[in-house]
Amino acid sequence: MRFLFHRRQATRAHLAQALRIRKSAITDLCNRLIADQTLREANPERQRNVLLQLNPDRFVAIGLQHAERGVCGVRVRADLSCEGETFYPLAENLTGAARLDAIADCARRYVRVAASKQQRIGVGFCDIGMVDAVRGYSIRAAAVPGWENLPVRDRLKTATGLPVELLMHTDSLCLAEKTHGAAKAMEAFIFIQVGRRIGLSVFLNGGFLRGNTNFFGELGHTVVAPAGDICKCGNRGCLETVASTDAVVRKVRDHLTPGSPATAALTDGVVTIDTVLTAARQGNKLARLALEEAALAVGNAAAFIINILGIDNLVLGGKLTEAGDLFLDPVRGAVARNCVHPVSENVTVCLGQMGEYGSATGAALAVLQAHFAER
């Protein structure tokens, strides 16, 4: 089953050869798996060399994405098809355990409608902040008051009755880009997500690069301006203080001049990241400058990572990438200037392709990978 999950389709002869099992034995086994609807024939009209594949209706993974305003849900089948995109809003001002209870209720409700009991294989949950995936805890999320040291995995396992994979948003989105998006053809790549937080994932040798601790990818808390603003983490001058969506909005808001064309273009002075992005697309100089400065900071940080790791593929995701080339071009320029030669000549920098439910999709993909790794 693991072989078919990764290869998608294979003939009985191919399975016998790859798994080093007698063809008669593999034929008997495949026939039993077809009978109980675990496998199915992809081209039953053929007499010879019939391709077998996992029955996607038997293996459905649930992906949940914890966002500031609510929970996004999606289901992914064994053939990697995605469906059932659903959003559950969360009440404002929920903190800590009360918010976790509400999320558990969302998970329980979505699991019930997403797939039958016979189909469900597990739940993937990508959290909004730092996680300890080994212990199954959410460690901290600066954007959500009280969201600290919570036993997310056990709580969701109790609520759904299913195995739970706990991931960071950036890792989930990275996995989705590898499977469905811009990184499908990349053997190794660096993924940077730029939103209210800035996260890093590195995909290498078929999985995520990891160290000897339970934490990874806090690029947003790399100090880039030692004399800069104080960050939510308590340090001064972190990358998130100059390149996150909050930093872009703050920079625009702080430089508005009453009565100026730039101010008028920003919807009567009401500044959000969406109004900034809209104004930038319409040519607003202040909005474009704020985006460019954020992009340059991200590009400089990315070049630092590329020089250390020697990985020449960079994929960008997150809210700021909605600006398109207005964000991408400055990042490319900074990477080209700051990467050592000859790496600088071969670096590929591109925007991700996954949308609003990308992280939820990646969380479900992690469940499928874990499920078939054991089979």
Q: Overview of this structure, please?
A:
With 375 residues, the chain is an alpha/beta fold. The protein folds into 3 domains: 2-54, Arc Repressor Mutant, subunit A (Orthogonal Bundle); 58-176 and 357-373, 2-Layer Sandwich (Nucleotidyltransferase, domain 5), CATH 3.30.420; 184-351, 2-Layer Sandwich (Nucleotidyltransferase, domain 5). 41% of the residues lie in helices and 21% in strands. It contains 14 helices and 16 strands. Strands 6-5-4-7-11 form a 5-stranded mixed β-sheet, sandwiched between helices. The longest helix is centred in the last third of the chain and has 25 residues, at 285-309. The protein is globular. The model has no long low-confidence stretch (mean pLDDT 92).
Whole-number total of structural domains? 3
Radius of gyration: 23 Å
Oligomer: single chain
By CATH reckoning, the class of the largest domain would read Alpha Beta
CATH topology of the largest domain: Nucleotidyltransferase, domain 5
Beta-strand segment tally: 16
- Basic shape: globular
User: Largest sheet, described in full?
Assistant: 5 strands, mixed
> Could you give the distance between the termini?
6 Å
